[in-house]
Amino acid sequence: LAVPTVYEPLAKKRGGEDPISFLNKQLLQKYDPTGKRRALVHSKTGLRAGDIIKVTYLDRTDVVGRVLGVKRGENNVGTNILLRNKINRIGCEVRIPVFSPKLRNIEIVQRPKQYLPRAKQYYIRNTKLDVDDIEASIKRQNKKNRKAEETK
What is an example of a GO molecular function annotated in this UniProt entry (predicted)? Predict the structure, then answer.
């Protein structure tokens, strides 16, 4: 009879952590070394549907819009944000990957006084709840605030 060969078990790699979560941590460290974007997307005080945000790219172009939904990637860096704005009275939506190396900054411009129900607000499209031209409305609001301060 031939005796089967028995090999020693392989050494534990990655500190015993499974490969998917280990790779996810490495990718997050690569694309978000400061942890600012992770905190923005994954914390309770971070980004919510209904917030108005401004995304700045490395080539200094800006995108301003209302967040309709945040798709959080589980064990990957595929988290993205769906923004909606109106340009020339036409509704425009853009999906922005949060961990893209082309992004410079994501900042929250305004939070609503009261959030609408649901985590993803696709239902506001073409209703009375739909967004207006956000940049123009923020300028109008700032103008009103300045006039109110001057009258005091």
Answer: structural constituent of ribosome
Structure tokens at 82: 């769906």
Q: Where are the domains of the chain?
A: 15-151
The DSSP output letter for 122 is: G
- Three-state DSSP state, 22: helix
Collapsed DSSP state (helix, strand, coil) of residue 68: strand
Residues 74 and 81: beta-carbon distance below 8 Å: no
pLDDT in tens, 81-101: 999 999 888 899 999 999 999
Nearest-angstrom CA–CA distance, 129 and 138 = 17
CATH class name, domain 15-151: mainly beta
Residue showing tokens 């509704």: 91
Q: What pTM was estimated for this model as a whole?
A: 0.79
Report whether 42 contacts 28 (CB < 8 A).
no
Whether residue 41 contacts residue 70, with contact meaning beta carbons closer than 8 Å, is answered with yes
Sign of the CA dihedral running 116, 118, 122, 123: negative
Phi and psi at 33, nearest 5°, equal -65, -30
